[in-house]
Amino acid sequence: MKPLISIPWRPPVLWLAALCVTCVPLRASEPPQLPPLTTAAGNPHLPGKFVWADLVTDDLPAARKFYGSLFGWTFREIGNYTIASSDERPMCGLFQRQRPADNNATPRWFGYISVPDVGRALKAATNAGGRILAAPQRFQRRGEQAILADPEGSVFGVMRSSSGDPEDFLPDPGEWVWIELLSRNARQAGEFYHAVAGYDVLENTTSAHPGSYVFASEGYARAAALTLPEAKAGRASRWLLFVRVKSVAACITRAEQLGGKVLLQPRADLHGGRIAVIADPTGAAIGIMEWEPGAQKGGQ
């Protein structure tokens, strides 16, 4: 299998659905002018690849300050939607919604999977026990997208880009490098995502952790799915996105200086200590990873 560089917890679903629907309202008759995923001519579609990400937060200024200082991202606004870029490459979107006072909803990141047909993906998802959180929307330059939850409540989007998908490339520091699903039953989750996105679901026999799988398409590993240990089985399932950094240790130090927290310290048994999980000041979790050429993704 070719190694892949690609991306790029369960919230109260009604809150997240409210956040996600029409996140960039301008005027009812004027759809938002979201940028295309790629401006390269003739880019193919790459079904199964995670091609975009969004952050739902209740404190956009704090999030912008944190990610801008930590990863060097720059920002521009389109309506009430903020595009974050790394070295002028659009990376993700950020939008703000008030957190309900009567529950413990947490700001969070989620990613979008490239699919050949959004309608078919939604039908497959609901047939397999998933839920539609935000109905399909079409944007002239972006394409069609929708937001869903899998049977365990993990939130993700599906997208059919009107410009093709970003090519597979080695990301620079500050760009998405990987994505993992933390699940209570990764094998069953694999069946769901096979139905929705057409993944080949491969058991990761090199992993020291049981219940580890790789989601692959067209010979590329697109994501990993890990079964939570029994001691953590009560935790909610979630997708976790990773950004490439030059130094995990230095990034952790800087994140704490900026008001973030470390949720998972580097450990020798997790990619040789080259990954960690942090939370921004609003509580949204994000992974960081040092990348070594030739390292195989999904090899936990």
Q: Characterize the largest beta sheet: strand count, sense, and whether it forms a barrel.
A: 8 strands, mixed
Oligomer: single chain
Rg from Cα: 18 Å
CATH architecture of the largest domain: Roll
CATH superfamily of the largest domain: 2,3-Dihydroxybiphenyl 1,2-Dioxygenase, domain 1
> Any idea what the shape is?
globular
Alpha-carbon distance between the termini?
16 Å
Provide a descriptive summary of the structure in words.
With 300 residues, the chain is of the alpha+beta class. It is built from 5 helices and 16 strands. The chain folds into 2 domains: 13-23 and 45-161, 2,3-Dihydroxybiphenyl 1,2-Dioxygenase, domain 1 (Roll); 176-289, 2,3-Dihydroxybiphenyl 1,2-Dioxygenase, domain 1, CATH 3.10.180. The strands form 2 sheets. The protein has an 8-stranded mixed beta sheet, with helices on both faces. An 8-stranded mixed beta sheet has the order 10-11-12-9-13-16-15-14, with helices on one face. Helix 3 (118-127) runs antiparallel to helix 4. It is globular.
Secondary structure topology:
Blueprint: H1 13-20, E1 50-57, H2 60-71, E2 74-78, E3 81-86, E4 89-96, E5 108-114, H3 118-127, E6 131-139, E7 143-149, E8 155-161, E9 176-183, H4 186-197, E10 200-203, E11 212-217, E12 220-227, E13 238-244, H5 248-257, E14 261-264, E15 275-279, E16 285-289
Parallel strand pairs: 1-4, 5-8, 9-12, 13-16
Antiparallel strand pairs: 1-5, 2-3, 3-4, 6-7, 7-8, 9-13, 10-11, 11-12, 14-15, 15-16
